[in-house]
Amino acid sequence: MTGKVEFGLDTFGDVTAGPDGSPLRQAEVLRNVVEEGVRAESVGVDVFSVGEHHRPDFAISAPEVVLAAIASRTERIRLGSAVTVLSSDDPIRVYQRFATLDGISRGRAEVILGRGSFTESFPLFGFPLDDYERLFEEKLDLFAAVRAERPVTWQGTTRPPLENQRVFPATEGGLRAWIGVGGSPQSVVRAARYGLPLMLAIIGGDPARFRPYVDLYARALGQFGQPALPVGVHSPGYLAETDTGAREELWPSYKLMRDHIGADRGWPPMRRSEFEAEADSGSLYVGSPETVARRIAAAVRTLGLDRFSLKYSAGPLSHERMLRSIELYGREVIPLVRREVEQGGLHQTVA
Fold first, then answer.
1. How many domains is the chain partitioned into structurally?
2. Rounded CA separation 176/174 (Å)
3. CB distance 54 to 124 below 8 Å
4. Which of 37, 189, 199, 216 is such that its CA lies 20 to 30 A from the CA of 182?
């Protein structure tokens, strides 16, 4: 932990259900996400992030455009991606888009760079999956060079070389960038080598099992001569007034989302017992504000986190319910967790 803990919300722009239960049009989902970002600022959330996907169950394929719309209606909240799939994008254009967002938002932009847990963007943009690792490594190297905002001389195998090339626009204070990691030690070390903060995607199991990655990151930073840098976690969750109410409201949508994705990956349908186990002691932060606050505080302490970001959307879960969840997270959960982490208050250890 390097300083005061930040609290974020993120979404992939899941295609939600309308009042009659049928899926909303993706255009309406995008407008709703903008409203959710504006609401997040109004209730005290520190960071609002949106993910990039290229499939029918998610509406956001251009995160920085959505974030620019939110920037035009907010003043304080940080705005980022969750994540930008760098392997199938142009690192110079990624930098330019987020540097532009940074200027528009007066320094509030950030980007989380990742390889992506979905692969639809690779055939869509003409990149071979066989080059999955090489594409990310080389493009991250080029992005790091561009991010320094000095003339770039660079050579690799995935694109033509650059010779003393400038990239615009320049930012006023530098572009904040993170590396998103799903659980690979090599990715943790890579983040340390480039001197970038680490964002762990923990979507299942006891969060304490990721402590070795946090320790590895700290050791690697030291070995590369880097200063201590922030560590964050992204995990799913949902808030309602009571524990029972939250679970009953979330379960149908969560199962539909999980089973839809699982069908593509060969996973069996999710059982209610799995859902309950994750809600009790895993990485699904669902329940009343006090219950969720206790569990987030335990994860923050156990992992020494600088940021906790709640993925608040879940498949067809309605816009109205997500707005209420955002309200409870900002107005009740965040103050409770801050009090516990900074002063002591909830007095619960991780299970």
1. 1
2. 6
3. yes
4. 37
Check residue 350 and give its pLDDT: 34
Residue 347 lies in a domain: no
Would 84 be classed as within a structural domain? yes
pLDDT in tens, 210-236: 999 999 999 999 999 999 999 999 999
- Per the structure block, which two tokens stand in for 40? 């997040």
Query: Dihedral of CA 200/213/286/292: which sign?
Result: negative
Q: What is the pLDDT of residues 271-287, one digit of tens each?
A: 999 999 999 999 999 99
Q: Is 144 helix (H, G, I), strand (E, B) or coil?
A: helix
The CATH number for 234's domain is: 3.20.20.30
DSSP for 63-129?
A: HHHHHHHHHTT-SS-EEEES-EEGGGS-HHHHHHHHHHHHHHTTS-EEEEEE--S--THHHHHT--G
For residue 349, being part of any structural domain is answered with no
Give a yes or no: residue 313 inside a domain.
Answer: yes
State mean pLDDT over 322-335: 98
Q: Cα(181)–Cα(81) distance, rounded to whole angstroms?
A: 14
Closest CA to 39 of 235, 331, 254: 331
